[in-house]
Amino acid sequence: QVQLVESGGGLVHPGGSLTLSCVAHRFAFSGSEMRWYRQSLGKEREWVASISKRPSIRTYADSVKVRSFIYRDDAEDTVYLQLNRVTLEGAGVYYCRVGDSNFWGRGPQVSVFS
Q1: Number of neighbours of residue 61 by Cβ within 10 angstroms
Q2: CA geometry: angle at 22 spanning 15 and 97, to 5°?
Q3: pLDDT of 35-87, one tens digit each?
Q4: CA of 46: how far to CAs of 28, 40, 60, in Å?
Q5: Cβ neighbours around 60 below 10 Å, total
Q6: Strand-pair partners of 11
Q7: Which residue among 39, 42, 57, 82 is least crowded, i.e. fewest CB within 10 A of its CB?
Q8: Residue 63 to residues 5, 14, 97, Cα–Cα distance (Å)
Q9: How far apart, in Å, are the Cα atoms of 96 and each of 5, 8, 15, 49, 110?
Q10: How far is the C-alpha of 55 from the C-alpha of 79, rounded, in Å?
């Protein structure tokens, strides 16, 4: 069964940085697009960033484009989301997902405290 195990959430001050990781199990990771989503308190889950299979084309939501970097390590079956210059709006639960499939991770919480 496909499994996505995320880590790296926690507390961060505004302007700080945090890197989330998502390790994939039991599917062809290197041949799959991977995505990150965010769900902030009281809001619907929204797409944040995607990275295609090789050559790893990256796309971002406008709200995070200048503050985030998505990358992948196919040798480790892991996708990352680096959050830079985090704002209060960056707080929420972050989920990784296999493309547009129904396979989601459980989501690490990112809390932003001033």
Answers
A1: 15
A2: 100
A3: 999 999 899 999 999 999 999 999 999 877 678 999 999 999 999 999 999 98
A4: 25, 9, 11
A5: 18
A6: 111
A7: 42
A8: 25, 15, 19
A9: 9, 12, 23, 10, 14
A10: 14
